[in-house]
C-alpha cells in the first residue's frame, strides 16, 4: 500500500503554496477535480494585499478589522498582516513579477475600504492567473487531476487519507497528513464568480464527520459583476476598477451610492452590494459601472482582461457603461482552523485558503485579503506538518458503494441554486431562511447521489447558521419583512 506524507486537496493558491513548502524528497500529492486551473485563484483579478511596510501593519490590521464589522479574530489578522511582506518577498525571490513602473518600482493599487494603496497586482487585472501559473511551475510534486474527493478516511479524531473517484473508479489514498485547500461554495448559488468546480463537497464531508465549521452564514457578494453571459461563472469586474476611479451609476448617470454611505464607491463591499441590490429593487433602475472618464490607453493597459472580456460581450471600454449586479463571490465562513493551519479538534488534518475559517475576515472580507490568506496559511500548514511528528493510522478502510450522482440530481441542484439565491443571499428574512431549510431538508430525504447530498449538507449549514444569527452584521443582513 502506498502512503503519502501529505495529500493536498485543491490546486489553488493555498494548495500550491503549501506544496512548494515541502521538499522534493517528501511524498506529496495534490488532488484536483478537473483541470489544475479550474480554481478560484485562477479567476482572481484584483491582487494580493500586503502591508506596504512595517509602519503600515497596524493600519492594514485596522482596515481589516473595520471591514470585518467587529467579528474578526484580531490575533489572526495581526499574524496575517505581519507575514504579508514575507510571503510577497518570497514570491519575488522565486521570480514572480508583480506589476511595476518603468523604473522597477512596484505599483500598489487600492480597493474599497483600504485606507491606502497596498495591493500588488500582476498582468494588470490577471493577478490570480499569473500567480497560479507561476506556482504551478514552481511546484515539484505530482498532481492527480480529474479526481473528486468523495470522503475523508477517519480513525477516531485522526485523518488517514481520502477516498477519490478517479478514472471511473473509487480509490483509497492513504496519507499521514491531509491539507484541505478546496475553496468555497460557489456552485450553491445561481449567480456567482467562482470556478464551476467549487461545489462545497469537502465542507459537506466535514459536516458528516462532525468536523467544526464556523461563520457559515457569512457569504460574501461581489458588487460589480456582469451577469448577462450564459456561463455558470459570471464575469467579475474587479474592485480595482472602483479603486482606480470607476463610478457606479443609475440610468441617469447618478452616483447613487453616496445616498447609502459617504464613501460612495469606496465603501466596504457588503455596503456597496446591498446598496445596489436595494436601489435596483426600489427604483427599478438598471445599475452600471461607468469608466468613460478613464484614458483609453490607460484602461487597456491596466485592465487588459476586463477590456477583452467585455469586448467579447459587445462592450467597448472604457466608453460604454456596463450593467452590473452583485453576485456570490467568496465563502468567508469555512472549516474551523487554528493559527497553525490545523483543523480544530482533528489530528493530521489541515486547512488553508477559502475553505478555512481562520477568523481573518470576520463578517466581511477586506478586498484582496484572500490571496494573501491563502499564501500565509498555506505556508503555515506546510511548516506545522514538518514540525509535527505523526503516528500513522492502523485502520483498514473499505471503498464506499453509494452512488455519486443520479440522473435526477441535476434538476435538484438547479432548484438549490435558485433557492440559495432567492432566500439566502444579500438580504435575508427569518421566514425565507425557514422556507429554504424546509426545502433542503426535504431534498436530503430524497433518493439522491452522494455529491448532491454533500452539497445539501453545506447549504443546510449556511441556512442554519444564518437562522441562529438574528441580528444583521457585515454580509449577514436580515430584515423582519419580505420587502
Ligand atoms: C476583485 O478583483 O474585485 C476581487 C478582489 C477580491 O475578491 O478580494
Structural class: alpha/beta
The ligands found in this model are:
succinic acid
Fourth CATH level, the homologous superfamily of the domain at 223-328? Succinate dehydrogenase/fumarate reductase flavoprotein, catalytic domain
- Number of separate strands: 21
CATH secondary-structure class of the domain at 223-328: Alpha Beta
Number of helices: 14
How many angstroms separate the termini?
59 Å
- What would you call the shape? globular
Radius of gyration: 22 Å
Strand percentage:
15-25%
Average pLDDT for all residues: 97
**Could you list the spans in which at least 5 consecutive residues all have pLDDT below 50?**
none
What share of the residues lie within helices?
25-40%
Largest sheet: 7 strands, mixed
Architecture of the domain at 223-328, CATH level 2? Alpha-Beta Complex
What is the third-level CATH name, the topology of the domain at 223-328?
Flavocytochrome C3, Chain A, domain 1
